[in-house]
Amino acid sequence: VEYCTINNITVSCNSWGGGGFSSSLNNAIAASKTIGHVFVAAAGNSGVNTDSNPHYPSSYGQDNIISVAATDNRDNLANEGTWGSNYGANSVDIGAPGVDIAATWASAGYVWSSGTSMATPHVAGVAALVYAQNPGWSYGQVIQHIYDTGRPSSAMSGITTTGKVLN
Fold it and tell me: Which of 81, 110, 122, 125 is least crowded, fewest Cβ atoms below 10 Å from its Cβ?
């Protein structure tokens, strides 16, 4: 995150999580606002409500974070039996496709993978495209545009801040 701030990188894709609250990481994310950084974070794959069971880094309270839930091909919250997407009416912002996503792996070529780590890059990519089309926008304008243009989903209503899926 500090590298992004030093080098004016305005979007990062953070498909990782775990561990407890870190003041250092929270402060780094907060400091990245000065360059307009959008920190896109995977909500986690424990199937829990992160309003009451925080998942870091997606649960830090910074307004430049987009916390991403995984959805299936019907815009439902992903629940694959062995894992389920985290959710939270106050802590997870938007859903994005996260089940059976084609990905490349160095040792295996193309593989199908699932989880919030598959959903998060979709949102980070859109954030980068929005910035590319609107280079003068603030991180808040970029994030709001993503939320405003999301597709309403009854399955996301009440379990994400927007009630939407990335469009």
Answer: 81
Can you spell out the DSSP letters for 15-83? ----S---HHHHHHHHHGGGGT-EEEEE--SB--BTTTS--TTTTS--TTEEEEEEE-TTSPBPB-SS-
pLDDT in tens, 34-48: 999 999 999 999 999
pTM across the whole model: 0.96
Instruction: Give the residue ranges of the chain where pLDDT is below 70.
Output: none
Element (H, E) at 142: helix 139-148
Cβ atoms 77, 159 nearer than 8 A? yes
Q: Give the Cα separation of 77 and 95 in Å (integer).
A: 8
Distance CA 96, CA 69 (A): 6
The separation between the first and the last C-alpha atoms of the chain, rounded to the nearest angstrom, is: 26
Residue (of 123, 147, 118, 160) closest to 12 by Cα position: 123
Nearest alpha-carbon partner for 15 in 165, 123, 120? 120
Find all residues with CB under 8 Å of 73, minimum gap 6, and list them: 97, 99, 100
